[in-house]
Amino acid sequence: MRFGIRDELDLEKIADSGQCFRWKREEKVNPDDDSCRYLIVARDHVLSVCQHGQVLEADCSPEEFDAIWRVYFDLDENYAAIRSRIDPEEDPCLYSAAQLCRGIRILRQDPWEMLISFLIAQNRNIPAIKKSIGRLSEKAGHPMEGYGENIYSFPEPEELAALSEEELRSCRLGYRAPYIYEAAQKVASGKVKLSDIAQMPDKEALLSLKEFKGIGDKVASCILLFGFHRLNAFPVDVWVRRAQQYCYPDGFPFERFRPYCGVMQQYLFMYFRQRALLTADPPARR
Fold first, then answer.
1. For residue range 153-167, what is the model confidence (pLDDT) as tens digits?
2. Which helix (H) or strand (E) is 21 found in, with range?
3. pLDDT tens per residue across span 50-92
4. Which residue of 60, 208, 241, 262 is surrounded by the most CB atoms within 10 Å?
5. Contact indicator for 97, 247 with CB cutoff of 8 Å
6. Contacts for 215-222: CB closer than 8 Å, 24+ residues apart
7. pTM
8. Rounded to 10 degrees, what is the CA torsion of 175, 178, 179, 182?
9. What letter would DSSP give residue 176?
10. For residues 143 and 243, is the Cβ–Cβ distance under 8 A?
11. Burial group, residue 253, by CB count within 10 angstroms (0-12, 13-18, 19+)
12. Beta-carbon contacts of residue 15 (< 8 Å; ≥ 6 apart)
């Protein structure tokens, strides 16, 4: 089926934005086709999708698209309007970042999946993160049929809690294995309810997430932004820290961009990460 998109959306940029680890870029059938097709696994749903301009071509019914994927891609939020809040004269650095990264959206992903994914993501590159999540899903999830390859759902808390620390370590989780073991036990037992955290104000939710072993400010902020869709959460990693150093020596203007600081964070993250890949020269200060 083909679905029209009215707002800004770029699958390639979203795939490279560091917020999703279960997107697989598929091989092109037609080498003359410049569109990219992705196989997306979200908890226990699978979608094969490619983009042609403002049209998504997806292997699902309109009913499934509206019920699951419209929400997942956050298509009811107006990102063009969010981006228009940036004044090019007042903030040329962020304006340039947003222009380059136009099309990124903050996906509405599952809080449990994001909790475990960002525990795994600590101090690792994206290919390693994807491999560990894939091994974990294969070991504790269930197979998803119909896509010609071994695809597994992301494990439910009870499925993950049934694994020992040694079984978790076999997924090449390293020092993160006990963190994931403890998180699975807490959520599966009901000792911690993610639905309760979802109802908390941002600061209280951040503190609650930091009560999990192995979660500090950055990981908690990532889980808030990408799992609980708190668009004001602002994770600070090496690239965002570099953006703050070069563009905001007096501090990022959070008040100016509330409640969308997390969207601005994504623009800065991808912009500075891409610059680092292209050149060794530091970006100009504001």
1. 999 999 999 999 999
2. none
3. 999 999 999 999 999 999 999 999 999 999 999 999 999 999 9
4. 262
5. no
6. 215/119, 215/179, 219/118, 219/119, 219/121, 219/122, 222/114, 222/118, 222/121
7. 0.92
8. 180
9. G
10. no
11. middle
12. 23, 25, 36, 38
Tokens 């010609």 — which residue?
A: 148
The H or E element containing residue 266 is helix 261-278
Residue 171: name the closest of 130, 202, 143, 206 by CA.
Answer: 130
Per-position DSSP letters for 194-249, written without gaps between them: HHHHHTS-HHHHHHHHTTSTT--HHHHHHHHHHHS--TT-----HHHHHHHHHH-T
Q: What is the pLDDT of residues 199-247, one digit of tens each?
A: 999 999 999 999 999 999 999 999 999 999 999 999 999 999 999 999 9
Structure tokens at 261: 């600081």
Strand order of the β-sheet with 55-58 is 2-4, 55-58, 45-52, 37-42, 23-25
Cα separation, 206 vs 147, whole angstroms: 37
- Distance separating alpha carbons of residues 231 and 107, to the nearest angstrom: 10
For the record, the structure tokens of 285 come out as 């200060």
Cα gap 147→284, rounded to integer Å: 46
Q: What is the DSSP string of 50-83?
A: EEETTEEEESS-HHHIIIIIHHHTTTTS-HHHHH
